[in-house]
Amino acid sequence: MTHPLFTGYEPEPLDPHLVLHACCDFYRASPMDILSTSRKQPTATQRQVVYYMLRDFSYLSYPQIGRFMNRHHTTVMHGVEHINETRDRFLFLDLQLDTLREYIKSVSDYAS
After folding, report:
1. Cα 15–chain centre separation
2. Range 61-74 average pLDDT
3. Residues of the domain holding 24
4. Residue 79 falls within a domain, yes or no?
5. pTM of the predicted model over 0.70
6. CA distance to 8, 11, 81, per residue, from 4 (Å)
7. Domain count, the chain
């Protein structure tokens, strides 16, 4: 049985701009780089991480993230799936995503 205080608890969604800028700060990249059409590494991977974090923190749908990032929703789906598969294989990425998640939480607490 779940505790009544935790039933249905879901944290408030974060503003996608806040998530984007926090990811850019974390990676020391500019939003222009992340939103560009560049396929170069590490920009492409950083962009996929932004998709992943937007999905996690903003509760936006794939089409909504695609519109926000100026990408097709299937590109966003592929990016999120790629990060999920890669984090299962590489401990470094898994740890980096956990650190980034904590960073975004701290930035959102500061912004509130």
Report:
1. 11
2. 98
3. 16-111
4. yes
5. yes
6. 9, 16, 34
7. 1
